[in-house]
Design a protein that fits this description.
heterodimer; A: 12 helices; 2 strands; globular; B: mainly alpha
């Protein structure tokens, strides 16, 4: 009864839009990375020059690698601090600690608040002159603890991670939580009857059964960790905060592509090369991670 | 009957018998979390109160209740600072972006999940690319493409980009369509209904909840977006609310009251949506994750 190729008329419109504005740009950026072009006039093919410049240019390479280092530092925070916190909170909600409904509602709420507003709130709290925190410390007589917060390279990065936890942890918590809820009731019942302790249930049942979902969350949050932009940009300014403490690869890209920081004019080919390097870096991290996480997966 | 159910519920609640120490640990965790979540209330509450203070009151009395409640900040941002115009820009982007994204996403997902064809696996993977590659990688080409077709610094251009971001919606819709039995469509087809008629008359009404979920997360994401508007909307008349707030952060000390009011105006729609539909939003976020 069914006509052949009936699927095409459903897929085609979406396919066209998606190809033009999502896939084509990704291919285009690879092409751009091999040319020298200021955005106007003719393009000049320059082979690998842009990439060589990224790695060797005196006035660029140190800044870029410092920023990339910050990205890696943040990535480690995601793996070692943020994800475990998310997992723990999901578990607490799963075992229904007191007031868990209200807490779930409130913990997730900042996730729907825009990063600009989150930064605005951060300014209210941490601004050295009128921020609540310094005022509060003054009020209780602990002036020596007052700080410049985001203006202090020692604090800026830590505070940003805290802000990200406050704003963004909700999604991971909810994904972990919904995976805990998917675990069959029979298994839980059986382990209760067999008299296993809460700790045993946590380590022997919940962790192994939720590992596959952990793998995908960690992969996604790693990709986003390497693409971090909004909060450091708004809080630290486009130059990456005090002594580069909030400088990330994406900020460098933005500065050098749209802000003419390299030689006074915009060099789009150079910007594209930064993008390609970031992309390759992301893919490498993702692939390595997949390989490592696969080893931990249980055979089911 | 009712008694039975009550008993059952009682039993379910008491499946876990907790030792006193385990109970205490749980209470400690929940008190810590209560304190932690009160930060959110505190910050939003202060902003609401500060937005209703007069200028002099705000400088001397930053934290605390206003001496006299006033709406002058709101009046000022809405009239002098033209906030309505930027709000209209944001609303336009979200409405066009979300509706277009829903329409294309659902259509594509239906085509993929309901028909058998060669290269299906490739198409499924192809539409996932958008979820795996962050927008920052493709923003420069997007900038150039929009400039070429003359839609840079134009709301329509950014709306096009939003409409094309169907990966997430397409993925969620596919998962949902797989749960609808084929039988209904088969019988409709017997009665001579065409493919599109089946889609709009039978499938769309069935997936109202999932449409709602995808619509919510797409709309919230677009309303909150900062990076794309910043790069692609360079002209002040096309600014969105998030860009205006970004500007206010830069000159906060000059326009304290106004910036508070602008933040609250931007925040209200999102918070209202969250209070009304928090479970659907959460479902969308956790459903959009690639599981396994």
């Amino acid at each position: 009864m069914r006509k052949k190729h009936a699927h095409i008329k459903f897929i085609l419109p979406g396919f066209l839009f998606y190809t033009c504005f999502v896939v084509l740009p990704i291919i285009y950026v690879f092409g751009l990375s091999f040319v020298e072009w200021s955005g106007m006039g003719p393009m000049k093919f320059s082979g690998l020059d842009n990439f060589i410049k990224v790695f060797t240019a005196q006035n660029f390479a140190p800044i870029f690698f410092h920023a990339l280092g910050n990205n890696v530092k943040y990535l480690l925070c995601v793996w070692l601090i943020i994800t475990p916190i998310q997992y723990l909170l999901a578990y607490l909600f799963f075992i229904k600690i007191p007031a868990h409904r209200y807490l779930r509602f409130m913990v997730f709420m900042p996730y729907v608040i825009s990063s600009t507003i989150v930064s605005f709130f951060a300014t209210l709290i941490f601004n050295p002159i009128f921020g609540f925190l310094n005022k509060f410390l003054e009020g209780i007589g602990l002036e020596q603890l007052q700080g410049a917060w985001f203006g202090d390279p020692k604090w800026a990065f830590k505070l940003m991670v805290m802000l990200i936890i406050w704003q963004g942890a909700g999604s991971g918590i909810m994904i972990f939580y919904s995976n805990f809820m998917d675990i069959s009731k029979d298994v839980m019942e059986a382990c209760r009857i067999d008299g296993c302790t809460e700790w045993q249930r946590f380590t022997r049942i919940l962790i192994p059964l939720s590992l596959p979902s952990c793998a995908s969350i960690i992969t996604m949050s790693s990709i986003w960790a390497l693409a971090l932009f909004d909060l450091p940009f708004i809080l630290g300014g486009r130059n990456g905060g005090v002594s580069g403490s909030l400088d990330f690869a994406n900020l460098v890209f933005y500065r050098y592509t749209f802000g003419n920081a390299l030689s006074g004019r915009s060099e789009l080919g150079f910007g594209a090369a930064i993008c390609v390097i970031m992309f390759i870096f992301m893919m490498t991290v993702t692939v390595i991670q997949r390989k490592i996480l696969k080893k931990f997966e249980y055979d089911t | 009957m009712g008694k039975e159910r009550l008993k059952k519920r009682f039993r379910e609640r008491n499946t876990e018998i907790l030792s006193p120490s385990a109970k205490i640990v749980r209470w400690i965790f929940s008190i810590v979390l209560l304190l932690y979540t009160s930060i959110t209330i505190f910050v939003i509450g202060i902003t609401v109160m500060d937005s209703m203070k007069s200028k002099g009151d705000l400088v001397t009395n930053f934290v605390g209740l206003p001496k006299a409640w006033t709406l002058e900040n709101y009046v000022k941002v809405l009239t002098e600072e033209n906030l309505l115009r930027y709000a209209a820009n944001s609303v336009f982007l979200v409405v066009v972006g979300t509706l277009g994204c829903l329409f294309l996403g659902a259509l594509t997902a239906y085509g993929i999940s309901r028909f058998e064809f060669r290269g299906k696996g490739f198409i499924v993977a192809y539409f996932l690319i958008g979820m795996m590659v962050p927008i920052q990688v493709s923003v420069l080409p997007l900038f150039l493409i929009l400039r070429t077709i003359g839609l840079l610094n134009n709301l329509l251009g950014l709306a096009l980009v939003y409409v094309s971001g169907i990966s997430m919606g397409c993925f969620i819709f596919q998962k949902f369509f797989q749960t609808i039995p084929m039988a209904m469509e088969e019988s409709a087809r017997m009665d001579g209904a065409g493919d599109f008629k089946i889609f709009f008359r039978i499938i769309v009404p069935l997936c109202k909840p999932v449409i709602m979920t995808v619509a919510l997360i797409t709309a919230i994401g677009q309303w909150n977006d900062f990076y794309m508007p910043m790069v692609l909307l360079g002209k002040r008349s096309t600014y969105t609310l998030t860009l205006i707030i970004y500007q206010y952060i830069g000159q906060f000390t000059k326009h304290m009251g106004e910036s508070m009011a602008a933040v609250i105006i931007t925040l209200i729609p999102i918070i209202v949506l969250y209070f009304l539909f928090s479970s659907q939003i959460v479902e969308g976020i956790s459903g959009g994750a690639v599981k396994g």
